Amino acid sequence: MGFLENIKNKLTGKDQKRYLSGFANTNKAIGQRLKVITTGNIDRDTFIEELMITLLEADLGYKTAQKIVDRVQEEVNKYYVLNQKDIFKILHECLKEIYGKDEKEIVYNEDGPTVILLVGVNGSGKTSTAAKLANYFKNMGKRVCLVAGDTFRAGAIEQLDKWAKQLDVEIVKGVENRDPSSVLVDGCRYAKEHDIDILICDTAGRLQNKISLMNELAKMKKVVSREIDGAPHNTWLVLDANTGQNGLSQGLLFNEATDLSGIILTKMDGTSKGGIVIAVKDLIGVPVYFITLGETKEDLRLFDLDLYLYSIIEDLSDES
Ligand SMILES: Nc1nc2c(ncn2[C@@H]2O[C@H](COP(=O)(O)OP(=O)(O)OP(=O)(O)O)[C@@H](O)[C@H]2O)c(=O)[nH]1
Ligand SMILES: [Mg+2]
């Protein structure tokens, strides 16, 4: 079975339209733009220049974009006559190579609740992602509980509580201004006592360069590890795909402070800068686990490298 056949089989029915429309802006910025550049006579130097600009505008960042352009140039030089189809194939393969293996494994606790800690800057999408994850695991038949670990922002507890009601999942919450670590401890104890499979902990938004807030995260990790062996089993950075290159600095500093196991890229639907996925993996070295494509509970997808590459560079005009 060919590559495209394989991809199309991954995207079935209704989900195909939803998924591809989520990537429409990034596809416009990369795939459609390159299609125009590579139609008719292809001047190699112009193509390489335009490719660099395209990748930068799609937010791959200078270092990663340069790496890709160098590899594409190497491959392009092997062709005596170059056509559009070859170029797309080469680009596809080079992007795949630079991203590296699409390896991500959600760590499950075999002997009790699995704890997931969501961290990130203000407004990145942590709370809504907590809800989307709750829905995802609930649909897998797991018993899910949310923990309202954002005791800082007014209204944050109510926001998560509303989601819990809507999703019909349990929730542990403290009161505003209480130490978030103690709420997390309550959450762990509740989970152990009530046979919870997945405990999803929302936390307050924090700037990556505020030492005291980063220390607070370290404390949260320490207290949950005392309650449940190996917890948090998954620490995921929730990163807004629109933040561009600042997202890389967030990733690097959060990774230093909390040893991230994965990244969730949110708001992919609104952005033309979806190339950030490649940059994040290339420069931070932490894999992308999930992406979110909208504001409803269903708008979360497990990241899939092949699907992603297909969605951002192939010609989708007759696909949706
Ligand atoms: N279009 C779109 N909007 C999203 C997505 N994910 C989150 N949002 C919206 O982004 C806004 C912020 O989301 P929250 O989940 O409240 O973000 P947060 O990180 O918890 O914010 P703080 O708690 O203030 O730090 C909300 O209006 C969400 O509906 C997405 O994938 N697509
Ligand atoms: Mg929040």
Strand content: 5-15%
Instruction: Give a list of the ligands.
Output: guanosine-5'-triphosphate, magnesium ion
Q: How much helicity do the residues have? A: 40-55%
Would you list the SSEs in sequence order as H and E? HHHHHHEHEHEHEHEHEHEEH
Uncertain runs with pLDDT below 50, 5 residues or more?
A: none
Strand order of the largest sheet: 3-2-4-1-5-6-7-8
The backbone outline, from C-alpha atoms, is: elongated
Structural class: alpha/beta
Radius of gyration: 21 Å
The CATH topology name of the largest domain reads Rossmann fold
Number of helices: 13
Q: What is the average of the pLDDT values?
A: 91
Largest sheet: 8 strands, mixed
Number of strands: 8
Distance between the termini: 21 Å
What this model shows, in words?
This protein is an alpha/beta fold and 320 residues long. It has two domains: 3-102, Up-down Bundle (Four Helix Bundle (Hemerythrin (Met), subunit A)); 114-303, P-loop containing nucleotide triphosphate hydrolases (Rossmann fold, 3-Layer(aba) Sandwich), CATH 3.40.50.300. The chain has 13 helices and eight strands. It has an eight-stranded mixed β-sheet, with helices on both faces. Strand 2, helix 8 and strand 3 (170-173) form a beta-alpha-beta unit. Helix 6 packs antiparallel against helix 13. The longest helix has 17 residues, at 211-227. The chain is elongated and about 65 Å long. The model has no long low-confidence stretch (mean pLDDT 91).
